[in-house]
Structures are given as C-alpha cells and as structure tokens.
Amino acid sequence: MSDTPVIGVLALQGDVREHLIALASSDALARPVRRPEELAEVDGLVVPGGESTTMSKLAALFGMLEPLRERVAAGMPVYGTCAGMILLADKILDPRSGQETIGGIDMIVRRNAFGRQNESFEAAVDVAGIEGGPVEGVFIRAPWVESVGARVRVVAEHGGHIVAVRQGNALATSFHPELTGDHRLHAYFVDMVRASG
User: Fold this and answer.
1) What is the pLDDT of residues 103-121, one digit of tens each?
2) One of 82, 158, 183, 186 is an active-site residue; which one?
C-alpha cells in the first residue's frame, strides 16, 4: 500500500457521497464499492449510514454479504457509521425479519435507540484518540451499543450510552461525522488503514 490508501465506501444505499468527500479530504483515494471485485481492490471500507435492513438485503442481493464478512474477518480495516454500526455488530437486539449483519465487532446494538427521525439531534462527543476537543455528532435515528465483549474498546459515550467503539481494525460510531465538515474521525480511520499496511 502506498502512503495514500484506497478506501471504499459501500455504495448500496445511504450517504455515500459525504463519506467519499470526507475520505478524499483526509488523504485517501476514495471510491464507491458495489461489487465483490471492487471490494477486492480496496485497503479499507466505510459502511455508511442509511437504512440497515435495506442495506443488508441489498448486500445479499449483490453477492456482497459473504465477501464483506470474509474481508472483515481477515482484518480489513472497516468503519461503520449509524446503520454501518448496526451492520458491523455481531448481534442486533431487535432485528427486522431477514436482517443480517456483516459482523466483526463483538457488540449488541439496539436499532433506532435514540428515537425516530424527528428526534434527531446534534451533540458534542468526546472520542478517545481524537485530538482537538469533542467532535460534533449528528444522531439520526441512531443506534446505541447495549453491551460489548472483552476485546471491544469503548471510545465514546453520550447520555450514559455507548456511541463509539473499536475492536482491532474495526471502528463504529452511532453518529454521522461525515455530515459536519469535521473530518477528524475519517482522518483517524485513514491512519488505521495506513497502520494496518
């Protein structure tokens, strides 16, 4: 891998464009990923926010679910935001019927935990490992983490709930950092991808 890692954004549904912009501004070569052969060409992957049930069904439809599981299990760096956090959970507390996950983080996630669309909010969140003060978190029908396994590091909480975690090369936040113009979390992930070499 050169100093400029190639990072994909899973482009089946959700806020793909904003992540591509945030990654590009963090010195990564960012590209949309829809097919297994495109997944094979990236050094790391962002799983964006969107509708987790729809995304899991589309991933299955596009033949992406198994390749995603294999790459994540093999240690490919991955960062999930909001619905992406749900998809990276090993277990969902209240899954919709037919909803599957990619897995990779030993956590149990509760969907829409912070309420409906009209209860969306922004909040300053202190994230361990991110320099320069709190990041502005945009919470839109956001999940939270109910519990984590021994290998998972909790890196942020909000209102007494876990909203950001890291396990090895996998990072997940319940909020959307790509919607704020503050790209420190994306830069942190790009550094994770570089370090994974």
Assistant:
1) 999 999 998 888 877 789 9
2) 82
Distance CA(8)–CA(23), nearest Å, equals: 9
- The string of DSSP codes covering 28-50 is -EEEEE-SHHHHTT-SEEEE-SS
82 is catalytic: yes
Check if the beta carbon of residue 167 is closer than 8 Å to that of residue 151. Answer: yes
Are 4 and 29 contacting, i.e. CB atoms less than 8 angstroms apart? yes
CB 81 within 8 A of CB 97: no
CA distances to 78, 150, 155, 178 from 103, in Å? 11, 16, 19, 22
In the chain, the amino acid numbered 104 is G
pLDDT score for 97:
73
Any catalytic annotation for residue 176? yes
Q: Is 158 among the residues known to form the active site?
A: no
Q: What is the pLDDT of residue 112?
A: 85
Positions of the chain with pLDDT lower than 50, given as ranges: none
User: What's residue 1's pLDDT?
Assistant: 57
